[in-house]
Amino acid sequence: MNGGRAACRFRSVTRNAENSEPLVDAEIGEVPAAGPTRVSTAKGLVYLGACLVLIGLNLRTVFSSFSAVLPEITADAGLPGWAVVVLTTVPVTLLGVFAPLAPVLARRFGAERVLLGAMAILTAGLLLRPADVPGAGHLPALLAGTAACGAAIALCNVLLPGVVKRDFPHRLGLMGGLYTTAICASAALGAGFTYPVFRAAGQWTSALWFWALPAAVVLLLFLPLALRQPVVRHQFQTEGANVWRSAVAWQVTVFMVLQAMMSFSVFAWLAPVLRERGVDGGTAGLIVSVSIVLQMLGSLFAPGLAARFRDQRAINVVVALMTGGGFALSIFGPVELAWAWTGLLGLGQGSLTAVALTMIMLRTRDAHTAAHLSGMMQGVGYGLGSTGTLLVGQLHQATGGFAAAGILFLVVGALAAVFGYRAGRNRYVGG
Q1: Where are the domains of the chain?
Q2: Rg (CA), the chain
Q3: Do residues 253 and 377 make contact, with C-beta atoms less than 8 angstroms apart?
Q4: CB–CB of 194/65 below 8 Å?
Q5: Are 64 and 191 spatial neighbours (Cβ–Cβ below 8 Å)?
Q6: DSSP β-bridge partners for residue 31
Q7: Cα→Cα distances 416→270, 349, 361, Å
Q8: What is the architecture of the domain spanning 19-234?
Q9: Cis before residue 32, ω within 30 degrees of 0?
Q10: Residue range 120-137, pLDDT digits in tens
């Protein structure tokens, strides 16, 4: 009977993957099973849905806002080259480091309280990030605040999709679409509005502090709802295939690593690339923002297209090459065509991220294995994926330009195509 329920739940998640980003339940396997968030009325359920979408709307501004004013921060705060590399790398690394901790905390405190705590940490990190430490300057606060933000986002990344899936089983297409659109919009807002805020305020610190405001608002909105939830301690039952011993799982995970290398490098470095090529800060932010909006289109249509085919080799190869090529053309191509290159990059990157996540569903036979593969992909994918931003920063520091990074992403895009081809074959984790 339990196996039948799990199979039904997995089928519903697979169907949802055809409409939006797949929602993998990080709480699956808990005993007793995690119950839905307790709300007393239909308005309460709408309020819960709004809170979850608003949480998603805060999960990427930390990346894109920093890169939007990176030249101003570097000049004013006197950041050494190594600090710039660390500040663009650490938050992505922490997405992988803290991802395995999220289900453990949820079993002890409940997913709602962990999300609340994560939003409190995110707000605190955003407030701390631009602070000036007497006698030490801005660097200590930038490092500590950025690290806190990365840890908080990691917890939300893991738990939020499962809560959306658990509490809105009959509205998965709608809520999944709103949630994933909110995350993409978060990056677009950070890229598009940070520089105008800087121009209006005259200080980069104000531009970064600005993003603590929406996080604090969501924290206050979600606070009463999360605290009303009962605390039930859960244990974890291991079911499903051993993903760590599966060649298919490793092919999917390496595909995820390579797409993460490119994805977070776009957030961290695309605006500085454009500005170094002579594009002014406001226009660069707008170009990056539009590119991210195009990512939304790619992430909306790519999963459904991928799920229609017996295997996904062709689509995986195409979107990987689009992403690597778009990034390289943004560096090497005529700057007059920057909108075209970044548009190609946006469509490719959004599609690449979506199909990499869709592989979780298409390469597994049951929900437990899908949850284990998701944990493996997030831990390894984000942990190693941060090497993309690290390498770009180090290459820029060593060469004084982004040409070497352009070559790097041609190579990364080609490797993503190779592993995407292998991950796209019609095979399953566990045989």
Answers
A1: 19-234, 238-431
A2: 21
A3: yes
A4: yes
A5: yes
A6: 235
A7: 19, 12, 19
A8: Up-down Bundle (1.20)
A9: yes
A10: 999 999 999 999 998 889
d(CA 79, CA 343): 31
**Could you identify the residue written with the tokens 């999709």?**
161
Please name the amino acid found at residue 301.
F
Joined together, the tokens standing for residue 38 give: 């307790």
170-193 as b/e: b if 16+ CB within 10 A: eebeebbbbbbbbbbbbbbbbbbb
CATH superfamily of 238-431: MFS general substrate transporter like domains (1.20.1250.20)
Instruction: Give first-to-last CA distance, the chain, whole Å.
Output: 23
- Cα distance between residue 45 and residue 41, in whole Å: 7
> Please, which residues have CB within 8 angstroms of residue 1's CB and are 6 or more apart in sequence?
none
The span from the CA of 50 to the CA of 382, in Å, is 27
Average pLDDT over every residue of 315-326: 96
CA of 328: how far to CAs of 40, 92, 406, 421, in Å? 52, 21, 4, 21
Distance of CA 366 to the CA centre of its chain: 24
C-alpha angle with apex 94: 78 to 246, nearest 5 degrees? 140
Taking residue 245's Cβ as centre, other Cβ atoms within 10 Å add up to 10
| DSSP code, position 95 | H
Whole-angstrom Cα distance, residue 354 to residue 177?
12
Integer CA distances (angstroms), 133 to 65, 180, 326, 338, in order: 21, 36, 40, 39
Task: Provide the pairing of β-strand 235-236 with 30-31.
Answer: antiparallel
- pLDDT, tens only, 178-234: 877 888 889 889 999 999 999 999 999 999 999 999 999 999 999 999 888 777 665
Residue 30's pLDDT is: 53
Three-state DSSP state, 79: coil
The alpha carbon of 23 is separated from its chain's Cα centroid by a whole number of angstroms, namely: 13
**Same-fold call for 19-234 versus 238-431:** yes
Extract the tokens encoding 227: 């605290």
Q: Can you point out the beta strands (E) in 180-240? A: 235-236
Q: Helix, strand or coil for residue 168? A: coil
Amino acid found at 161: P
